[in-house]
Known about the structure:
Layout: H1 11-21, H2 23-37, H3 44-56, H4 61-75, H5 82-97, E1 112-117, H6 124-137, E2 142-145, H7 152-165, E3 168-170, H8 178-191, E4 196-200, H9 208-225, E5 232-238, H10 243-255, E6 260-264, H11 274-282, E7 286-290, E8 298-300, H12 303-310
Parallel strand pairs: 1-4, 1-5, 2-3, 2-4, 5-6, 6-7
Antiparallel strand pairs: 7-8
Amino acid sequence: MTGSTTGSAPALGWLARLRTGLSKTAGALGGGIAGLLGGRKIDRATLQELEDQLVAADLGVRVAGRITKRLGDTRMGRELTPVELREALAEEIAGVLAPAERALDLTAAKPFVLLVVGVNGTGKTTTIGKLAARMRGEGRKVMIAAGDTFRAAAIEQLRVWGERAGAEVVADAPGADAAGLAFTALQKAREAKADVLLIDTAGRLQNKADLMAELAKIVRVLHKLDTTAPHAVLLVLDATTGQNARSQVEVFRGIAEVSGLVMAKLDGTARGGMLVAIAEEFGLPVYFIGVGEGVDDLQPFRATEFARSLVGLEP
């Protein structure tokens, strides 16, 4: 058993799905690139137009400026075909994203306690189910705590995912104390010698103070059993929300000590460039990305694969 989370889906199938999932973003960006060149050489005006297009594709002002500066430094005065420009862009975007490509090491503790946070509707509960299935496929013993006790649907959804993945789900009646449930789940995970405990949490942002207090209480009670738990806090983001995804990172970093990101629903948006802006701004690892509803549609993030798909190239 290794510490990294290696893929179980066929590589080619995943890469094809990734490219298809990012096709809306690639189409918007690629069309602009094709119209940008037209036999022109790279000059300051071209770079300015390209920077504007990158900003419009949600890569962010800082990233767009950084990429166009690099292109100016290395390719000023050259005449590039649209494919050559895409290749150059993919290389620069991959360079921005490289620090975010880190494996999630689940061997740092046993059980490894993974607290999953995010706004309701981002795909958080589904992501937990997919993670459980993935980890079970790697031979790990997994337990799930249905800690979003305010939503009966979330509890039932996790029961279904748990049964499908072969992971025990610790749940209580809707409205139960989430911290107490987390404590019980960690006790059971230790007794069962589970490798991983995934804890779902509420995602109501209407009252941030209440949510902060609830998450702090969960951490406090976990500390009674393991002073190092949780060992990771994953924030699940919905790519279709664009700039809202960025603001959610800011909010949840203030509420919980977020240690990594999962970007879901990349297949439903033309705003996939937002992941580049978020990764660059916050410096957090992007552990997984999702491009569909299937269990294998959540895979580890790979900077070069993502960058090439983002500009419409074969990964």
